[in-house]
Amino acid sequence: MGLKNFTRDDSIFANEAVLRDSYRPERLVERDKELSEYQEALRPVINAAPPKNIFLYGQTGVGKTLATRLVLKQLLNDQCRYDDLSIEVINLNCKSASSSYQVSVDLVNQFRNTCSKIPSTGYAGSQVYQMLWNHVDDLDATHLLVVLDEIDSIGNDDDILYELPRANDNEKISDTLVGVIGISNDFTFRDNLSARVKDSLCDEEIHFPPYNANQLRNILERRAEHAFRDGVLSSDSIPLCSAFSAQESGSARQALKLLYKAGDLARTRNDPEIAEDHVRNARDTIEKGKIQEELKSLPTQSQLTLFSLLQLEAEGRAPCKRSEIYQRYQTVADQTNTDIVSDRTIHNRIGQLRLKGFIQHDERNDGIHGGSYYLYRLDIREEIIRSALKKSESRVSDLLYISS
User: Fold this and answer.
1) Number of domains in the chain
2) Does residue 13 lie within any of the structural domains?
């Protein structure tokens, strides 16, 4: 038959972009309490006072990043009413960073054009910090708010989270008042911060809990008004999407993804309505791809840890001790020109991978002399991990192509 013509006829969607990750709503519903706390935490800025440092935590898809964008947009708009304010904001996603050094380099490069950016290696940490302080001093701003999203990617190397919040107190920066907003998807990251960093960073902590089914239903109904044509949603499609998503994650992102996939299936089948079976089939399809997406989105150090265990498994050396994983990790990190982090950091990464269901551990006890310890092994088929990491566009993917 060959190819058919592309047409704009669509009996299901009026504007499917409203359900996509790239859509940026102008209002965040079901988060009035958190938005109010956020604005109160930023009140010193609008009063021309030193800013508080804010730490936001909660799992992915619960509104932390969107809340930050909306609150800071409001703050920047409102500053125009005051002659004594000049507020600047820097946004940095730390997902690809694995150390405070890399974050500080990325921050320096935020101030520079393409021709003058500094490389990720080659400078002493003190030099990079001094470049950063010089750039901030050159801003001619009263306030600088530095947003560090997915800050948990740096693991236990949290020096940047001390240096930035203390930059004014330590007289590193003379004129501009600096505030830090740290955002983390990892609940344990906050607990593992050093005492000095907790004192510096966590002036205000705002927890974004998972959405419940009723909240997700409200979110989906508001988006559905603009996304779908009239009459295409069955009465049980949104409640079912909300119930599934509340049970599994409490993530609005996942709920929207499920509703969008259900609509996509109805469109593909030329069905006039999005019904229960579309939602259930969409859920099954998403679950199959969920593991691969989760693997692809892991921070670099977690990917290196998982790849190290993958190698040991392929060599028949798993189950294995944590020390064996760390020894292999050091080799892999060196091969990818990645900063080698501490054994404690990799231990935390292993724990996070286990909580995500990627790794299993079994406790062993060798008696009085050997003591008890854990042996680790993969909990996902090797081919799934290889396929996902190859598509991750990270340093690990290069190693997989070389070894395959």
Assistant:
1) 3
2) no
Domain encompassing residue 234: 212-294
Q: What is the pLDDT of residues 283-306, one digit of tens each?
A: 988 877 777 778 877 888 999 999
Contacts of 222 (CB under 8 A, 6+ apart): 29
Q: In sequence order, which residues have a C-beta less than 8 Å from that of residue 80 and are 6 or more positions away?
A: none
Total length of the chain:
404
pLDDT tens, position by position, 318-371: 999 999 999 999 999 999 888 899 998 999 899 889 888 889 888 887 766 667
- What are the backbone dihedrals phi and psi of residue 374, each rounded to the nearest 5 degrees, phi first? -110, 145
Q: Give CA–CA dist 132/170, Å, rounded.
A: 14
- The full DSSP string for 167-212 is TTTTTS-SSSEEEEEEEES-HHHHHHS-HHHHHHH-SEEEE-PPP-
Query: Starting from the edge strand earliest in sequence, which strands make up the sheet with 54-57, in order?
Result: 87-93, 143-149, 177-184, 54-57, 204-207
pLDDT in the model for residue 31:
97
User: Which of 192, 207, 222 is the last residue in one of the domains?
Assistant: 207
Place of tokens 């081919």: 383
Flag whether 18 is in a domain. no
Residue 160: count of CB within 10 angstroms of its CB: 30
* 360 SS3 class: strand
Q: Are residues 106 and 40 in the same domain?
A: yes
Condensed to tens digits (0 to 9), the pLDDT of residues 236-285 reads 999 999 999 999 889 999 999 999 999 999 999 999 999 999 999 999 88
Last residue of a domain, one of 207, 226, 258: 207
Q: How far is CA 18 from CA 230, 265, 368, in A?
A: 15, 17, 61
Q: How far apart are CA 20 and CA 121, in angstroms?
A: 37
